[in-house]
Specification:
The complex is a heterodimer of chains A (about 350) and B (about 250).
Chain A: E1 4-8, H1 9-19, E2 24-27, H2 34-43, E3 52-55, H3 59-71, E4 76-80, H4 82-97, E5 102-108, H5 124-128, E6 139-141, H6 146-163, E7 166-172, H7 173-177, E8 179-183, H8 193-199, E9 215-216, H9 223-243, E10 247-250, E11 257-260, H10 263-278, E12 283-288, E13 290-292, H11 296-302, E14 308-313, H12 319-327, E15 333-337, H13 346-358
Parallel strand pairs in A: 2-3, 2-4, 4-5, 5-7, 6-7, 11-12, 11-14, 14-15
Antiparallel strand pairs in A: 1-8, 6-13, 10-12
Helix pairs in contact in A: 1-2, 1-6, 3-4, 10-13, 11-12
Chain B: H1 3-6, H2 33-46, E1 53-57, H3 65-68, E2 72-75, H4 81-91, E3 96-102, H5 103-109, H6 111-120, E4 125-130, E5 133-134, E6 140-141, H7 160-163, H8 169-174, E7 179-186, H9 190-208, E8 213-219, H10 223-226, H11 230-244, E9 248-252
Parallel strand pairs in B: 1-2, 1-3, 3-4, 4-8, 7-8
Antiparallel strand pairs in B: 5-6, 7-9
Helix pairs in contact in B: 2-9, 5-6
The chains are: A alpha/beta (about 350), B alpha/beta (about 250).
Bound molecules: thiamine diphosphate and magnesium ion.
Thiamine diphosphate (TPP) binds near residues 102, 103, 105 and 137 of chain B.
Amino acid sequence: MEEVKLMKGNEAIAHAAIRNGVDGYFGYPITPQSEILETLMDERPWNTTGMVVLQAESEVAAINMVYGGAGCGKKAMTSSSSPGISLKLEGISYLAGAELPCLIVNVMRGGPGLGTIQPSQADYFQTVKGGGHGDYRLITLAPSSVQEMADFVGLAFDLAFKYRNPAMILTDGIIGQMMEKVVLPPMKPRWTDEEIAEIAPWGTMGKPKGGQPRIITSLELDPAVMEQNNFRFQAKYKQIEENEVRYEEMNTEDADYLFVAFGSSARICQKAIELAREEGIKVGILRPITLWPFPTKRLAELANQVKGMLTVEMNAGQMVEDVRLAVNGKIPVEHYGRMGGMIPSPDEVVIALKEKVIK
Amino acid sequence: MKSEEIIKPENMVYQPTHLLNETQMHYCPGCSHGVVHKLIGEVIEEMGLENDTIGIAPVGCGVFIYRYLDIDWQEAAHGRAPALATAVKRLNPKKMVFTYQGDGDLAAIGTAETIHACNRGENIAIVFINNAIYGMTGGQMAPTTLPGMKSATCPDGRDVEVTGAPLKISDMVALLDGTCYVTRQSVHTTPGVKRAKKAIRKAFENSMANKGTSLVEIVSTCSSGWKMTPDQANKWMEENMFPYFPLGDIKDR
Ligand SMILES: Cc1ncc(C[n+]2csc(CCOP(=O)(O)OP(=O)(O)O)c2C)c(N)n1
Ligand SMILES: [Mg+2]
């Protein structure tokens, strides 16, 4: 029988990393995600799976350690919270440019600047619109439970290696800190060097005997060649958009109105749906699980069914822009949000639905 | 003797390492980078490590070292090579891992990564090309630019009152327990080249033996950046760089 455990979302990430055979974790403490590094240090996986866990001197160093590990075809990851992710963006752009698979976890807190240690979703733009320089995309998974925190570690690495692209788990201080029941993934051994040579033959492990040297780089000074590289990236991104969109729908079958919310905001919307339906308002929710690629097609379909949509986000209105692009003016799309670490209540959300969308 | 005769095996007295490929280097006349590339290739070949080495390239004039030396390479962001090398070596403890970095890369933007990799005693070798200038971006002031020395961003000469004194980063990291070998060499004379090669070999052996961090500083010329002929640059280096950056071992344990 599967063993059910009670733990924080951050702890689930750490345990899932060990169980997914991650080779290296490199991080720097910042609230509200330090339990990831602390749990890993406490588990001492270097004694069991051989996983390397290192506290780096900064987030800049940590993401570049991830680059080094990923460049060897190893499973490398880091985690941080908003200010630390800002520091990692240079490295993330290089990882995307060198087409290196890895996992970055952002347990978001309120900004801008040093901001607050309370939960937020204000790094949506930063994550799905670039953040770092250049035309790149980050595969972005948004868990809404501790179970998904555990499950998405493996999924993120699967997608990252499938497409040779960095992946991010974009979550917030609520999911990171709250305790829930979780079934951890089964133990998978770390890849052997022989397996890596099969799975990631591009990884630098010392030039193969009689083979060609392997070079991990994002540099190409010839613009004609650099444009070709970009075409290749864009083709890959298009493939990801076609194949990897994930979302969850609840109460949409008979819905007149739709909430669109991810992560902890989606949890709040679930309660708001109950309250609204008690009042006879038929509302459902689409919860994007992948924020990039975004469930654009499904939202466009739902725009033919519902009369209006409300995005609920812990920010000033970021994802709402992508929902509006998907709906393309067909129906009204409004936003309700709290900022700076404040969390919307289900009642507030129902009032916002009535005032902004139903009118 | 015709060239066909010279290259007959029985007449061959010297041959470049086969790790140095035929790609034409982009370096200016008199530049030290190319000489150090050759030495690195020779040492890797002589140590039999061509299939067990991972090099980390910098951002700076040395960025294309991966085009010239046929080993596995990772190209780092500006200054971050020691962070990459940290992970590469920790995840592959039996491999030889080294970084190749300029003074701007290692001692300005990458100072934190350099010092902390050395302080942790990462089992890597660092080859440090100190030409006292930002060669690649057109000759701006570096952390190691000498007092009074002119550059594109200190046209009246470096004023130490305003921009500080040249950073003696090798002496700094020699103080750290994590470093096992710190040395300063040059490649502008034949005996200098021989000593520099020995130093690189020792640093690479230390990486294989997991003895801690080794740093080999090569006090180098940049005739283009210094606006001198290669010959003038060598003389200028002897007269001005060596007093500030004296050659020899700083630490060997
Ligand atoms: C983040 C970032 N900042 C600035 C640059 C521009 N840049 C490229 S090389 C370089 C300086 C290189 O100087 P040095 O490390 O001394 O190497 P050299 O060219 O002298 O060998 C600079 C500032 C960059 N590529 N990336
Ligand atoms: Mg320089």
